[in-house]
Write a structure and sequence with these properties.
about 60 residues, mainly alpha, 3 helices
Length: about 60
């Protein structure tokens, strides 16, 4: 549960950094929908939905 909480605290800042960097690199070709899809893919790869449900059950 501590790992989940730490990850949730750190994640918004890191996601914003990544998004800003992608916008810098791609300029006008940057696609916010692609960034959204990428965030969802990462979440799936990390099995965050399962982890979130487990944390809720523990609480």
């Amino acid at each position: 549960m501590q790992l989940y909480e730490a990850r949730q605290a750190i994640r918004p800042g890191k996601e914003q950094e990544a998004e800003n960097r992608a916008q810098e690199v791609y300029g006008e070709k940057y696609n916010p929908l692609l960034m959204f899809d990428s965030k969802k893919s990462v979440s799936r790869m990390l099995h965050e939905d399962i982890e979130r449900q487990a944390v809720r059950r523990m609480m």
